[in-house]
Write a structure and sequence with these properties.
single chain, 420 residues, mainly beta, Immunoglobulin-like, L,D-transpeptidase catalytic domain-like, 5-stranded mixed β-sheet, 4-stranded antiparallel β-sheet, 6% helix, elongated
């Protein structure tokens, strides 16, 4: 601590750091520091010497810093653990008290830097450290990020799968606050709770082309509920490629493919006929399969009926889990560009399907307009995340508002290919 010469010690040496029941460090000397409410001073153990001379702080309780000198005030407090995680806090208007507003991590060492000033404005500074104890419970909440590392299209959401359900909104807020997504270049984005065990993250608009996106969890050691603490999570890094967006107009029977906002291909197509209309809205490429056997029985068409089919299909680009593809349909070339005759898929010539297959990647955007079909499901049948406008998407965040709804991942349809 350094300051201009004064006859009185700056407030920095009359601070008490409290993390209930131990692991506390205060300035040395003969004066015994006293605790302030909200905790009874009789239940506190203050250590004057270096950390390690006594017990460890209870991570289940908030951290508090108080100014005991009536003539001084706290001006700033920063607290971080050894991994660099920042502990959020709030300073009172009069500068006499700072308290944490986010949970402490268990089994961690914190460094707290306190800045002060006296009545004459002379600065004071104190660095304090303390350790937190281990949680008494063995229940952990692990996080698995998706997709796997690699390069994706600009429509690819980030997913976070939880090992245990989290239903309470306050507990969801703890989890969500610890899940971090950063991109270069930076964009505005938000998490949305799909159900009790899964969250999706997407930007307000599509990711920028050639961006780097990183997801990580700061949940390890953080208390989520009375018997549940955050576990480990492997961080995720992915990149985006060119901005590829394919727009299919079902009324004009055509697909226009854009690359970095420039038209690179126009393709005559056929989409779903009456009773089998192709879904409207934004879908995201889920994968590519060179060969798929498609059967009408997979979507409830009786074998032997007029609508029955059993066909080998090539260059199939999947956009829903229930079996909607963009694929080669040589049997309907005469209708492509003029009529909709498929059972829900977007069909095109073999040459055009091969070109599409070769020029799109997982995460690229496939949008259908002017179809009489319903809108792509938001969750549960692929990535329909982009069909929610931004206020609706943010409403699914526990840190904003709203109660997200949607099928659990176990309810997601994993059907055989449905349509041709």
């Amino acid at each position: 601590m350094s300051h201009a010469p004064r006859t009185r010690t700056v407030v920095g040496c009359t601070l008490l750091v409290i993390a209930l029941a131990g692991g506390v460090t205060a300035c040395g000397g003969d004066e015994h520091p006293l605790s302030a409410e909200p905790y009874d001073a009789a239940d506190q153990i203050a250590f004057r010497g270096p950390v390690g001379d006594g017990g460890k702080a209870d991570p289940d309780k908030p951290l508090e810093v108080t100014a005991e000198d009536d003539d001084g005030r706290i001006t700033d407090v920063t607290a971080r653990d050894a991994t660099g995680r920042h502990l959020a806090g709030e300073l009172s208007a009069d500068g006499t008290r700072w308290h944490s507003t986010s949970p402490l991590a268990a089994d961690a060492r914190y460094t707290v830097r306190v800045s002060t000033e006296d009545e004459d404005g002379a600065p004071g500074r104190k660095v304090l450290t303390f350790d937190t104890g281990r949680p008494v419970t063995k229940k952990r909440l692990d996080v698995t990020f998706g997709p796997k590392a690699g390069e994706y299209g600009v429509g690819q959401p980030i997913t976070a799968r939880l090992s245990r359900p989290v239903k309470d909104k306050a507990q969801r807020a703890v989890v969500e606050r610890a899940l971090k997504v950063d991109s270069t270049p930076a964009v505005e984005g938000a998490w949305h709770w799909v159900d009790d065990k899964e969250l999706h993250y997407r930007p307000k608009e599509y990711w920028p082309a050639h961006a780097t996106v990183r997801a990580r969890s700061n949940l390890e050691g953080i208390k989520v509920s009375d018997r549940l603490w955050g576990g480990r999570a492997k961080p995720l890094k992915l990149t985006t490629g060119d901005r590829v967006i394919a727009v299919t107009d079902a009324s004009s029977h055509s697909m226009t493919v854009y690359k970095n906002d420039e038209v690179i291909k126009e393709i005559p197509v056929t989409t779903g006929k009456p009773g089998f209309e192709t879904r409207n809205g934004v879908k995201v490429v889920l994968g590519k399969e060179y060969f798929v056997r498609m059967r009408g029985t997979s979507i409830g068409i009786a074998e032997g009926s007029a609508e029955s089919y059993d066909l080998p299909v090539y260059y199939a680009t999947r956009v829903t889990w229930s079996g909607e593809y963009v694929h080669a349909a040589p049997w309907s070339v005469g209708s492509q560009g003029s009529a909709n005759v498929s059972h829900g898929c977007t069909g095109m010539s073999t040459g055009n399907a091969e070109w599409f297959f070769d020029n799109v990647r997982e995460g690229d955007v496939v949008k259908v307009v002017n179809s009489d079909g319903h809108t792509m499901e938001t969750f549960g049948n692929g990535f329909g995340d982009w069909n929610l406008d931004w206020p609706e998407w943010r409403g699914g965040s526990a840190l904003v508002a709203g109660d997200p709804k949607g099928p659990s991942p176990s309810e997601r349809p994993r059907l055989r290919p449905e349509s041709v």
